[in-house]
Design goal:
heterodimer, A: alpha/beta, Rossmann fold, six-stranded mixed sheet, 9 helices, B: MetI-like fold, 73% helix, flat, binds adenosine-5'-triphosphate, binds magnesium ion
Chain lengths: 242, 243
Amino acid sequence: MIEIRKLSKWYGDTAVLRDCDLSIRKGEVVVVCGPSGSGKSTLLQCINGLEPFQQGDVVVDGIHVARAGRALPRLRARLGMVFQRFELFPHLDVMDNLCLAQRRVLGRTQGASEDKARVLLDRVGLSEHAGKYPAQLSGGQQQRVAIARALCMDPICMLFDEPTSALDPEMIGEVLEVMNQLAADGMTMVVVTHEMGFAHRIAHRVVFMDGGRILEDTETAAFFSAPQTERARLFLSRILSH
Amino acid sequence: MGYDWDFGFLVSRVKNGDETYLDWLLQGLFWTLCVALSAWLIALAIGIVVGSARTLRSRWVAGLAEAWVELLRNVPLLVQLLLGYFVVPELLPRELGLWVKQDMPPALTAIICLGLFTSARIAEQTRAGIEGLPAGQRQAALALGLTTTACYVIVLLPQALRRIMPTLTSEFMNIIKNSSVAFAIGVLELTFQARQMQEDSEHGLETYLVVTLLYVACALTANRGMAWIERRTRIPGYLGSSR
Ligand SMILES: Nc1ncnc2c1ncn2[C@@H]1O[C@H](COP(=O)(O)OP(=O)(O)OP(=O)(O)O)[C@@H](O)[C@H]1O
Ligand SMILES: [Mg+2]
């Protein structure tokens, strides 16, 4: 479903992605981890064309992202993205946050959008909060709304960029629970996270990045029992000792 | 002090005509508001577009927008006005230039010049407002499939404009005050009328006192109006929108 081949990206002279290869099949949950600055967010943003890249190919559902041109917005709409800092639109209430792109991008009617929004709000356990503004919700609630907003677009794949790292510990669970449920329902997911417990339980594969390279792309069980590279081993021991 | 204040002269006739000095004043007020408000609309429309353009990824567009801002912001308003009045008509195609010189009301020249001048300032403020937003807002909007235009109109600008309401307010008050330069090209606005009244009536002190009060009243009304809009558009629970 997603094919990344020999992907490289530079900011000026500094390479942030080097020769990355990654392929994600339908229904797969892939966790991406690695130290800060290793290029995880950049990799995600190349998948939906938020960041341009200089070399290689990114193919999503048969479409080349770099050559999508005017079709790019449509393509992006089919990839749900969830951000570290939620990024709900603060000037719109929850319902409008959920309906906006459905109407503008998918051309759904207000009624159909609201029905869809209600179903998904219910799924993330927030039906009561449709009329509230983002700033009136807790971090965990905001992130669940953000997930619902992405799901409203009927995405073929969800991209998560550290969805729990801006949350207080007591709210991490509620967001991970929603993600568990999604995975159980068969959603294709690429998740950048440092939640190794979550990765262990849910991921089919773990991708380890460092210095813009994909150093490991391993089955979850194998990754946790015996990482292939020294760097991954070091990273794991450091993160698990926390 | 020994000055004999007399505001009664306001309702007396002017030297050569049927009007009273009060008529002149009201006419001045009308033209001041007319020039200021029209220029404000132009400034807002162009300023928001140019300010947004400055934050686009395209170097080309952003560079053009920057040139616009630097050009208009670094030439004194009065000089721009005189350029617009005396020089621009000469540069236009002959027919159009003639029309501009002979038939175009000077108020229109003033509106355009003041509007363009202020648009550069509003563009800068809009740009600062957009750049002050978290980068994730743009990413989130685009990731949902919105086009760049929709991203600006629906997501970025509503937030950025709320953030810059305080500076927009002072810009609005500025444009009322700045409209006084229009007297230099013969627009019958408040300042023009004040000079005329002073010469005609020999009540210069009273005239300037009244005109000053009128300017202050306009500025205060503008200020109150913007504060009202600011309150009306405040986002519930959002600290960034209150000062
Ligand atoms: N606009 C930019 N200009 C220059 N360098 C950038 C820019 N954006 C990111 N970088 C660099 O690219 C590298 C990869 O950044 P990226 O955000 O993808 O890392 P990350 O793995 O997501 O890190 P984190 O865990 O901190 O989120 C970093 O070294 C960063 O400094
Ligand atoms: Mg990151």
